Amino acid sequence: MVLVDRSIYYYLIMFATFLICFSFVPLIFEILQEKITSNIPYMTLICFIAALLIYLFITISREYFIHSILYSIALACSIILLFLKRKYDKNNTNINIIKYEES
User: Fold this and answer.
1) What single DSSP character describes residue 98?
2) Number of domains forming the structure of the chain
3) Which pLDDT tens digit goes with each residue over 38-51?
């Protein structure tokens, strides 16, 4: 087992990781209520999922199980967002055009 230096920086990094991994949970609830995903690019979600897969691979190979759990939660949220975006972008084909009346 690798001994980890548990300084204040370690706890700050853990807290930041926790916040990043759980930051998408409120976004999922908001998307489920509003059913609007037009402002989230596919490339952003795909890059985030790729980064999380790399993090997850590193944490599992180094046996950092707490980090693995956090990154798994973030990965699940990102994949859910990707599927919700695909679903709601297909359903939301109506384009609202505001017509301005000339005075």
Assistant:
1) P
2) 1
3) 888 999 999 999 99
